[in-house]
């Protein structure tokens, strides 16, 4: 894969973290601005997660379209839709309209994430694929640091200004047209696509559960810091940015760790490592304790995304890859969308945000234990097998 092509694809991938995280520092201000709206606590949190609904609805169809019509076309179209939907929060004057714009943003995210990952997988194989998928996750984490920091600064001015950051996607359109060669898809019909392996559905389940746990960070952490530490939007943005630094650090070590442990063991280890990070955030009220938990939590998440993408890409043929990755993104974003919906009843029942993070730590341990019991020895028929390069891959 050429360096210029790789750079453009990595930059496009980094936009996916903006779907929710860049708005996180503005959530307290947005909630205050719409304080008279019914269910504002839930709706303000859903500003982050409604793009997930757009991905849930769009990713399966977009994945199949990518397999039949081509990756680059979907990537360019996704960048345009992403920019329009993301920037809509600058001028929409009601919370329902803002949520509608976020839904359109999610459709763009589905196209950008699926197409960019499929292109990286198509152009690489073996250790090279593991390396570049790790680099993709590192760019997502690095983009999170830069954009979250900017989002925190802009949120100090107004809760609306972080929405302007989404315009960066328009700049990537001409770069994509220049750096990525056009492709015509595989020219296959639905019947020729074939059935995805059963093992793929276990990967999708792991993706769903991982995002339910992960989105405790960008969704609930701003409110925890605002209530317990009286943190400013800039401080919240910096804290979430540091989480993305940790994600990048974990992603940069992914390829080496995956070679030593294998994808299955690394997946179990990831859930196990997320637990103490969440426990530290919920248990220690001081900023230093929360930052320690954030860094540990982010490190584990840095292994998660490239591992799920690698397992999915290696499990299917190139002709099925767009469909399989689209389904994976559906599982990921179903978890993101479900996370605040599952948490709000806990808050209404009287649990504090600190207790919610402690329950998240316990749930992460439970998922790790379940994965070990099912896949610890690789004997379960639904357990993802070790990566195989038997598919027809490009080198």
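Sequence proposed for the structure above (395 residues):
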């Amino acid at each position: 894969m050429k360096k210029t092509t790789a750079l453009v694809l990595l930059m496009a991938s980094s936009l996916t973290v903006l779907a929710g995280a860049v708005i996180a520092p503005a959530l307290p201000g947005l909630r205050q601005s719409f304080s008279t709206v019914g269910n504002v606590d839930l709706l303000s949190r859903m500003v982050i997660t409604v793009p997930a609904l757009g991905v849930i609805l769009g990713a399966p169809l977009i994945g199949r379209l990518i397999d039949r019509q081509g990756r680059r076309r979907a990537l360019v179209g996704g960048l345009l839709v992403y920019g329009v939907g993301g920037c809509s929060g600058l001028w929409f004057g009601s919370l329902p309209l803002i949520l509608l714009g976020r839904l359109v943003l999610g459709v763009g995210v589905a196209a950008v994430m699926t197409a960019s990952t499929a292109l990286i997988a198509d152009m690489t194989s073996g250790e090279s694929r593991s390396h570049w998928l790790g680099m993709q996750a590192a760019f997502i984490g690095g983009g999170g640091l830069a954009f979250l920091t900017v989002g925190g600064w802009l949120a100090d001015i107004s809760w609306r200004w972080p929405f302007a950051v989404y315009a960066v996607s328009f700049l990537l359109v001409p770069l994509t047209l220049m750096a990525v060669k056009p492709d015509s898809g595989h020219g296959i019909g639905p019947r020729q696509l074939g059935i995805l392996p059963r093992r793929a559905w276990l990967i999708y389940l792991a993706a769903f559960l991982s995002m339910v746990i992960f989105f405790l960070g960008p969704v609930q952490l701003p409110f925890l810091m605002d209530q317990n530490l009286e943190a400013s939007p800039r401080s919240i943005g910096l804290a979430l940015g540091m989480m993305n630094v940790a994600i990048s650090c974990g992603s940069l070590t992914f390829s080496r760790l995956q070679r030593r442990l294998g994808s299955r063991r690394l997946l179990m280890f990831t859930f196990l490592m997320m637990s103490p990070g969440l426990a530290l955030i919920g248990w220690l009220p001081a900023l230093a304790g929360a930052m320690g938990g954030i860094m540990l939590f982010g490190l584990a998440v840095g292994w998660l995304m490239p591992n799920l993408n690698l397992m999915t890409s290696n499990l299917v043929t190139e002709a099925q890859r767009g469909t399989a990755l689209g389904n994976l993104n559906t599982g990921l974003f179903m978890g993101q969308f479900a996370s605040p919906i599952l948490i709000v009843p806990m808050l209404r029942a009287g649990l504090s945000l600190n207790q919610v993070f402690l329950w998240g730590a316990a749930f992460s341990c439970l998922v790790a234990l379940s994965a070990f019991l099912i896949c610890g020895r690789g004997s379960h028929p639904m357990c993802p097998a070790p990566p195989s390069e038997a598919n027809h891959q490009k080198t």
